[in-house]
Each structure stands twice: as C-alpha cells, then as structure tokens.
C-alpha cells in the first residue's frame, strides 16, 4: 500500500495530520536535519573566527552562503541528505557530507571544508539540535497554545464570576461556589504550570567524544576550548552551556521539561473530566453545528467529544513524555544508543499534547452556561445551609450546633421551610436570624465571585 493519511500508522500523520502543521517543521526528521545543518554552520563560522592560522575568518559572502543554507533549507535538501545516508548509514555524517557538497562553487569554503564537523562527535551536533528543536517548539507552539487556553478560561472565569453553582465534594452536595471561581481555579493552576515549562533551561554541550575536549586539544593544545564552546552554544545558538557531560548531554533538562508538560496536561485532564461532568449535569450546554451527528442511533445526543478527545490525547502524551523523562537521563557508561531512538519520538509525544490542547480549545468554544439548570440544582439543596447556620451558632456559643444540624439534615431532603423553621428556634440576635433567613443556596458563595473576577490571564495568581 502507498503511504498516505489513510495508511499512516500514527493518527498524527493520518486522521489528525492537518492539525500538526505548527509542529511538523520543528520536531520531525526534517526539523532535526535543519537544526543539524544550523549547528554545523555556526560551529564552522565560529572556528573561522577563532584565530587559527589554518582557517582565516570567513568573508561576508562566505558567511552569507553558509547561513543561507540554513534559512533556505528545504525538503529537497533533507531528501538529498537522506540519499547520502543510504551510503553512510550514519545520519550526522550524511549532513557533514551534504554541507561539504554545497561548497563546490566557493573556493573559500572548499579550501576550509575539513573544518566542517571539526573535533566534533555526533552528539555535539545532535544534542544542540535537539535543544534548538525544543526551544522552537516551546516558544512557537507550546507556550502560545497554552496562553490561548489560559486566555479562554480567564474570559470564562470573569464572565461567569457571579453565577452560583452547587459544589460537590465526594460527589455529594457541598457548599456552593460560582462557575467562574471553579474556572479560575484551573487558570491559577495552569499559570504556574506554564511558568514551570517556560523556566526550564535548555542545555547543550560541544565537548567531544567523552566530554573532555580530547580531539580538540590534540589539534590546538593551547586553545581555550571550553570558553569557545560556551560562546558558540550561548551566543550563537541561544542555549545554556553544560560543562560536565559524557558523550551525550545527560538530558536531565529534557526530563524536567517533559515532566512540566506532563503536569500541565494532568491539570487539563482534570478540567476535561470536570467539564464532562458539568455537561452531564446540565450546567453547560454545547452549541451545535449544522450537519454534525452525536450518535448513529440516538438523534438527540450532543456528546462532549472534544473534552473526551482532549482527555484521551493528554493521556497518550503523558505516557510518552513520562517514558522520555524516565529513560533519557539513563545512559550506560559514557554512551549507549537507547536515547537516540527514543528522542525521535519527541514530536509524537508533544504532538499528542498539542492535539489535546486543540480539542480542548474547540470544546471551550462550544460551551454555553445553563443558568436555569444551575439555579434548579441549588434550589433543591437547602441542606448546604447547615454549614453557615451551625457556624453562626458556634459564634454565639449555642450548645452542640454541629450535632443539631446533623440531626436535622444528614441524608434528608430539606426545604426552605425546614431551614427557616430551625433558624426561628435559635437563641441568637434577631439581626442574625434575619440575615440567616435571607440566605439561600445561591447566595451562599462566600468570596467566590471576587476571587474569580480578579484572576489575570497574564500572570500567576498570588499564593
């Protein structure tokens, strides 16, 4: 069978291929090749500026030609590298040979071609490339998409800040809150989670086969290779330098980043399940779209499929991200190859996360609050006022307040009349009786509306 969206084994390249566009050029094999070319070019240019007698500083034209190979890198270029790899059976060496082949029309570059990949091990190129890939994915896709979710939820929180809602702890009726406050809780969690993702330092190394600059010093023993490598990584590539490594950069930062994304996804699984439940209770309706079908046999159904899809894809993402974070920091002695094959799945793991974000945003865009259902639910739960009544009784030192309210309400259907009759028997100031008599489940929401109203999409909530 021919490879197509219908025959693709991964749904990311099949059913959901159209939703993976933002990641495709960053975390695919094409993306890896692109970054390898970038790293090789920047290392080569830096070597020309190092002051070595054998390699004079490149001219502006030479630098322009080299960096043009990066900015104009195409699928055809990537395919040409793959063709070379058929002979070399080594992906990084194929990039080196392809780059040298681009020097044919430049006497300046051709004369210095042996400084391509000079003193480098493959992992000097790979680890920096992976860092650049993750930097771009975080900056261009992950954080902007999370910001959209945080923004959408913040708007929802503010719009529904004062809409009362019966809370449920252990699935049972509990002290009321507001819809907006429950959404604001999610916003606050996501803000902190986003900051954890954004704050992870992306590390890289350029120090040779076992991390000691052995080959570098064999060629230029008096040169400060550590400072040079730091400059290339930090100034030219925009990553953080790691001076202590084996052949590979140990990937601890990757584990930290993937764990941060996993925690974020877990928050969104929690929210997706809650929204699913609120839709089931009728608290939210979903806007319908002409032509859509909810069930092949039950015409009335409008299923919460976006939140179900989000939950499922977050689960897949977290399974892969957890494996990456647990496996990548482990390497036998100075290097084994198990990290290489696993790292090729970074795009798959993050792809499922992005698919989940996309589904969640789609679902949020369909939600409509059902004020009537919320009000009806509250009106059937007068027992939740047992809490404020017994708390006021405690203030005025009435005997056994908790026990008296427990006897009145536990496991029973309580009406407004039952509650108000009980309040009438209390030996408390008349002003307090009047205040309690006026209280309803819908008005007993504490500071919920104020908390929801002050949530800010742009920064984490104060602790």
Automatic annotation (TrEMBL):
Keyword presence, Lyase: yes
Annotated Adenylosuccinate lyase PurB C-terminal domain residues: 331-445
Function: Catalyzes two reactions in de novo purine nucleotide biosynthesis. Catalyzes the breakdown of 5-aminoimidazole- (N-succinylocarboxamide) ribotide (SAICAR or 2-[5-amino-1-(5-phospho-beta-D-ribosyl)imidazole-4-carboxamido]succinate) to 5-aminoimidazole-4-carboxamide ribotide (AICAR or 5-amino-1-(5-phospho-beta-D-ribosyl)imidazole-4-carboxamide) and fumarate, and of adenylosuccinate (ADS or N(6)-(1,2-dicarboxyethyl)-AMP) to adenosine monophosphate (AMP) and fumarate.
Catalytic activity: (2S)-2-[5-amino-1-(5-phospho-beta-D-ribosyl)imidazole-4-carboxamido]succinate = 5-amino-1-(5-phospho-beta-D-ribosyl)imidazole-4-carboxamide + fumarate; N(6)-(1,2-dicarboxyethyl)-AMP = fumarate + AMP
PANTHER family in alphabetical order: ADENYLOSUCCINATE LYASE
Keywords: Lyase, Purine biosynthesis
The protein's annotated pathway: Purine metabolism; IMP biosynthesis via de novo pathway; 5-amino-1-(5-phospho-D-ribosyl)imidazole-4-carboxamide from 5-amino-1-(5-phospho-D-ribosyl)imidazole-4-carboxylate: step 2/2; Purine metabolism; AMP biosynthesis via de novo pathway; AMP from IMP: step 2/2
Short name of any one Pfam family annotated for the protein: Lyase_1
UniProt cross-references to SUPFAM superfamilies, sorted A to Z: L-aspartase-like
E.C. designation(s): 4.3.2.2
Similarity remark: Belongs to the lyase 1 family. Adenylosuccinate lyase subfamily.
GO MF, one example: lyase activity
InterPro entries noted in UniProt: Fumarase/histidase_N, Fumarate_lyase_CS, Fumarate_lyase_fam, Fumarate_lyase_N, L-Aspartase-like, Pur_lyase, PurB_bact, PurB_C
EC category name: lyase
Organism: Piscinibacter gummiphilus
CDD domains the record matches: PurB
Protein name (database record): Adenylosuccinate lyase
Residue ranges of domain Fumarate lyase N-terminal in the record: 14-312
Highest rank taxon of the organism: Bacteria
